[in-house]
Design a protein that fits this description.
Aspartate Aminotransferase, domain 1; alpha/beta; Aspartate Aminotransferase, domain 2; 42% helix; 4-stranded antiparallel sheet; homodimer; 8-stranded mixed sheet
Chain lengths: 378, 378
């Protein structure tokens, strides 16, 4: 059948182009703060990796054995016992691999709503039908999942249970247990996307869904704790499924960059990533606090927002019939940006919502950006 | 619909595992010679790229602008006028992007037979039906393509017109013109996979199909002239299709490693890739000659083989009802390996065929490997 795929480009990535003027203070992209990258440590790791000629050669699809062992040990130490992972070209690739392996032509995918829009794109591209599961201030609502499973029989549930994108919300341990039970009872695959879990600024860790459910495919990434430019993620799944995913990855790109993988293994061996993450937590926590503190004077009365314990995002809803996409145009005239919320919805968008990232800008820039935003919103 | 994808792993990649014992002289994998990698030049390029903090950040899906300009200029200089390319995570990814963008649920893909098996895998994974087009010692036979197009109405033709994998054959300019004419008359997309084109050891270049057909998607790669570990390829296509492929890539992995791309741009800026390729040509040409010269004393009378002008592979056919998969087991007992030909066929395999790569081993190793192989084959 002749076709040319029709899928829209990501509004966030298109927006990033608009906000790249240096005078814009952008709260739009989910970008790590570049000044906090450990550039010297990373450069030294590449230099070390590139002492070995074999890093320029083809490599196993599964990934660099040292890196797999290091990542598995790190996950195990954090409370998720892990014997092996598949290294992916960022965790975005992991999503596509899972969709290719598990979603047939008439597949149904349940997603918390709102959700990460590049996941929506990825599932839409396979032709899957997307069904939304309600979320509240504690994240996905298990009772809603139960009705969706009964009515729609989805093949897969996708969620970001910890510091969600776009809401910043975290699913409680009892809700996780209930989701694990629903997954087991209905042979439902659960994709637990966890790029932000280590970026906790207060409270204590909630065990990952994968630690209580063997129906869970757990996705991790260096992008938020290391450097997104290296495009390194990993995927933990039951052994049978992992083998299938390796074959799917073989067709997707043979393997992830041998150089980047070896550099990451060298970095993890010779540097203290935990100390680096601790530094990120301190800095990002201060930025989170600065943004939340500025909100009452920035947004109109009646606006609500999430109060995230970690991650990168605050999710807001303006009162009445506000349209955040219209307001964004005005905001750009004032050299400040955010992401309108509509594109994070699988079905009926709430146009009064929007997402703000607090990690990319310094506390000072956040202050200035919020002052600009107040002129638009109030 | 519940499913778990069932696609076989690549026999070549599985075989590479068997042949990784250091005592084995392997003619199996299509691996560049590691001792010819410009390790120092590449390490210096990474070090230079990593002076700039922005190489650790997210980046545009299209690819690093400098690298796109450098690759486009290089293609233009080589006789293929190119205004832009999409940078891909190796050209294997380009195949998957093209399949996702162009192949609907009942798609039909025509391939020269035999052909590159990871391309077969990739098209099979989309659920496409594969139809073979006959090839002879000059590559794909246009008359066969004409009948296949009339009977099967394929959406896409995949071929490696220059120094093909697995045969080493090169399609003549008149045959290319005929294929371009068939593609234009039938709205057929043509994927011209050209990883080996620069590795010519004799004769003169044949213009790429893409230079005479605007129905052509041209795939190039650093893997054979630079380093496969960097996983860098590029894709040249008509502007409309290129835009669609960018969106598909966004879902596939957001973008290719910012670090690897910046290092490649630095390498191309500060090194003479043409001089490096010239060195590869000299070395690989000598290896080709050594393998071809040894063949008469290695294979049984009645064996036929291709006589490639470039690339990495010789394709052989044993006389009678020989089964090269059975002979491989015996060969491994003598610490030498090749790839049985069956898996390069989309439909009916010819079990008497096999592929030998002449690039990975030195002339001395080729001599020793061929002597071991003679014990098995003669």
């Amino acid at each position: 059948m002749h076709r040319t795929l029709s899928v829209a480009s990501s509004p966030v990535r298109d927006l990033l182009a608009l906000t790249s003027r240096p005078e814009v203070i952008s709260f739009a992209g989910g970008l790590p703060a570049p000044e906090l990258f450990d550039l010297d440590g990373v450069r030294a790791a590449y230099d070390l990796a590139l002492r070995d000629r074999s890093v320029l050669q083809y490599a196993p699809t599964e990934g660099n054995p040292d890196l797999r062992a290091l990542v598995s040990a790190r996950l195990t130490d954090s409370g998720l016992p892990t014997s092996d992972v598949l290294i992916t070209t960022g965790s975005q690739q992991a999503l596509t691999l899972v969709a290719t392996a598990l979603l047939g032509p008439d597949a149904v995918v349940a997603v918390e709503e709102p959700t990460y829009l590049a996941a929506l794109q990825c599932f839409q591209m396979t032709g899957a039908r997307i069904v939304p599961v309600a979320s509240d201030s504690d994240g996905l609502v298990p009772a809603s999942l139960r009705s969706v499973v009964a009515a729609e029989k989805p093949d897969l549930l996708y969620l970001v249970p910890t510091f969600a994108n776009p809401t910043g919300r975290t699913l409680s341990a009892p809700c996780r247990a209930e989701i694990a039970e629903i997954a087991a009872a209905n042979s439902l695959w659960v994709v637990e996307d966890d790029p932000y879990g280590e970026l906790r600024y207060r409270g204590s860790a909630v065990p990952p869904l994968a630690s209580i459910s063997d129906r869970t495919i757990y996705l991790g990434s260096f992008s938020k704790v290391g450097a997104p430019g290296m495009r390194l993620g990993w995927l933990r799944a039951p052994a049978d499924l992992l083998r299938t995913l390796v074959i799917v990855k073989q067709a997707a790109d043979l393997h992830t960059s041998t150089v980047d993988q070896a550099a990451a293994a060298a970095y993890l061996t010779h540097n203290d990533l935990d100390a680096h993450v601790a530094r990120l937590r301190t800095e990002y926590g201060a930025r989170r606090d600065a943004m939340i503190a500025a909100l009452p004077a920035t947004v109109p009365p009646g606006t609500t927002w999430s109060d995230p314990d970690g991650g990168m995002f605050v999710w807001l809803r303006l009162p009445g019939d506000a349209d955040s996409a219209v307001l964004l145009k005005e905001a750009l005239l004032h050299d400040v940006a955010f992401v309108p919320g509509a594109s994070f919805f699988a079905t009926t968008p709430d146009h009064a919502t929007f997402r703000m990232s607090f990690t990319t800008n310094t506390v000072e820039e956040i202050g200035e950006g919020m002052a600009r935003l107040a002129k638009v919103l109030r």
